[in-house]
Structure formats: C-alpha cells, structure tokens
Write a structure and sequence with these properties.
26% helix; signal-anchor; seven-stranded mixed β-sheet; TBL_N; alpha/beta; transmembrane helix; 10 helices; four-stranded mixed β-sheet
C-alpha cells in the first residue's frame, strides 16, 4: 500500500462542537475603551526587534507591503453616513479634519488594482468569506462590507450582528461575509476555578470556520491585556500546568502554534484560501515617532517614507516563525509597517466612549487599504 495512504489512514479525526453562544470573555471584547494600564502594555510592546513579516509568497513578483503613503483625492471609497454597517465607535463622527482620508498606499515596485466591489461579488459569487479574531477583525469586516456596499448600494442584504458570529449576505450574489469574534483564537473555558485560557485547544466554535472559501485570521492585542476583567480569563492552562499568568509573548507563541496545527489538520486547501491579518499597531507612545509627549490624538497626517522610527513589534517575528512552520499555505497580509505610518488614522477622541482610542481605526480609513491589499492578493 502507498505509504502516504497508510499515513493518512492513521491520522486521528478531530470532532468539534459549534458554539451556540459566546462565553463571557468574548462578550467583553465589545468594550472599546482601553485602560491606561493596557494602553501602556500595548505601547511598550513596540520597538522590539527589526524582523519584518514576510508573506508565504509575493504577488506576481511584487511586494505589496513595501511602499509609502501618497496623497490621493480619489479616496475614500465610501462615505460613513452612507454605510449602515459601521459601529459608532469607528465612524469617527465629528472629527473635523478629513485629509487623513485622502491617502492611498503605493507599493515601491508595482501598482495595485483599485478595489471593485461588484467585480469582487461576481468573482466570489456563492462563496463565503470569514474574518476570525478580535475587534481588529471587526474593523476589517465592516470596512469590506462598506466597500462592497458602495459599489452596489441598491443590492439587497441580510445583516445579522450577534456574538460570537455575525454575517452580511449580498443576496443577489449569494456572497456572505462572516465575522467570528474570538480574541485569542484558542479556547477560554469555564472550569471550577473560573475562566481558563487554554493554550493547547481550539474546540469551542471552530467547526464554523471550516468549509469557508476565504478565511482571514487575526490575534494579538488581547494577549497584552492585564487584569481579570480586561483580559477575560482567570487562569492559563499551559500543557498540564494551571497558572495565574505567564510571559505573554510566550503565551501568544503557544496559542498561535495551536491555531497553526488546527489549520493544518482541518482546512481543505483545495477549497479555502487562508490569510493571516498581520499585527495591527497602536499609537499611544509618541516617542516611537519622535514626538515623546504625543499620542494619536490630534495627528492629521501620516509619517513620510517607508520605515517606522520605533521599529518592529515583538509579535512580528512570532507570526513569521509560526507561519513558516506550517504545511498549509497561509498568505500573510503584512500590514504592520504601513499601519505604523498611519498615526493619524485612529478614532482618538472621536470614538464616542469618552476615551482616547489609538488602537482601532476610523472607517472609512486604513482598514480599507487592508482590504484593497486582500483584493490584490486574490486578484493578481
């Protein structure tokens, strides 16, 4: 008998149970305000190392993610008042400056196709696209919804927003955009001791990730949250050990490795294109761009050039290493540096909760570029 057939016959079959409702930790991901402690943790995570994320392939010999921001009067793709899918925390209502909307990303070695929502719907007619992750996944999901809607504003839609699973279907085309909220990707389970972040399991809800045509995964920000209310768990299960806490980068590495194993064992690559949404930066610490007393508040233009003064992020090398170890081809949307340059693109004080949000991004805005790069990767 062929050795490959023998090997495949010995692989265990993993059975997963679909979650019907979110656990407490997932519902807490809807809290937009980031505590001072967690802002400091997110900001302090910057500037470590110079390792750049590299996609598993380049698109037509072009590095889409090396380039610069250029003024472009043809942007944005849509008006927030005309898109019914944007959360109030992201529409930046009342922000007086609009120039931050008038930039496009220009790769150094090529041009990228302008997003065409109707062409996207026609190409992916009858298909399912799912974003899996935290509120940065929501940022990208709502952006793509608005970009498509602006191309076919009269198209009938079905919009269902729930936790953990939301969906938007463009009925005429049979295209559905899903959002599955799970900030750590790995499980948080309720045990006798309380809520446990299990670095070694993905069981709760993962069945709904299967059989999608496009999967876009994301996780990072929540790994730096501190405090049982903000982080959404009480203990960490690391192998056989149940512990109060551990080095968060080590935890992220272990959790992401578990995710990679799940993808390798469960995703049918003949049907599904898999992407990882690269690490999205924050702008709470102005010293990263040589304005030590500043945050994103009041910033009205991007940084010039193609490099970020504060350097890379520590999670960058972890993502690169985990993706390179996988047998499944995962395309990395390497958005980190191009997003670091956009200190001007956050909701800041226009997020509606009374705080300063330098973690998420205005819509329209930067996530539209993430989706244009996704569109390029799918099209070129």
């Amino acid at each position: 008998m062929d050795f490959k057939l023998i090997f495949l016959s010995l692989l265990p079959v993993l059975i997963f149970t679909i979650l019907s409702r979110a656990d407490q930790a997932l519902s807490s991901d809807q809290n937009w305000h980031v505590s001072h402690h967690n802002r400091a943790a997110l900001a302090a995570a910057g500037g470590v190392g110079k390792v750049a994320l590299k996609g598993r392939k380049q698109t037509s010999g072009c590095n889409l993610f090396q380039g610069r921001w250029v003024p472009d009067a043809s942007y944005p793709f849509y008006n927030s008042s005309m898109c019914p899918f944007i959360d109030s925390e992201l529409n930046c209502f009342g922000r007086p400056d609009k120039q931050f909307l008038k930039y496009s990303w220009q790769p150094d070695s090529c041009s990228i196709p302008r997003f065409d929502g109707q062409a996207f719907l026609n190409k992916w007619r009858g298909k399912r696209v799912m974003f899996v992750g935290d509120s940065l996944s929501l940022n990208m999901w709502e952006s793509l919804a608005c970009m498509i809607h602006s191309s076919v504003p009269d198209s009938k839609t079905t919009f269902i927003k729930r936790t953990p699973l939301s969906s938007l279907t463009f009925q005429e085309y049979g295209v559905t955009l899903y959002l599955y909220r799970t900030p750590y990707l790995v499980d948080i389970s309720k045990e006798d001791v309380g809520r446990v972040l299990n670095l070694g399991t993905i069981e709760g809800g993962a069945d709904v990730w299967k059989d999608m045509d496009i999967l876009v995964f994301n996780s990072w920000h929540w790994w730096l949250h501190k405090g049982v209310q903000s982080q959404g768990w009480d203990f960490i299960r690391n192998g056989s050990s149940l512990i109060r806490d551990m080095d968060r980068l080590d935890a992220f590495n272990k959790g992401l490795t578990t995710w990679a194993q799940w993808v390798d064992q469960n995703v049918n690559i003949s049907q599904t294109r898999v992407f990882f949404q690269g690490i999205s930066p924050t702008h709470y610490m102005g010293r990263e761009w040589n304005e030590p007393r500043k945050t994103c508040n009041g910033q009205m233009q991007p940084l010039t050039g193609s490099t970020y003064p504060g350097g890379s992020l520590p999670a960058v090398s972890i993502v690169s290493r985990v993706l390179s170890s996988m047998k499944t081809p995962v395309y990395l949307l390497d958005i980190t540096t191009l997003s670091q340059l956009r200190k001007d693109a956050h909701p800041s004080t226009y997020g509606g909760d009374g705080g300063t949000d330098c973690s998420h991004w205005c819509l329209p805005g930067l996530p539209d570029t993430w989706n244009q790069l996704l569109y390029a990767a799918l099209s070129m």
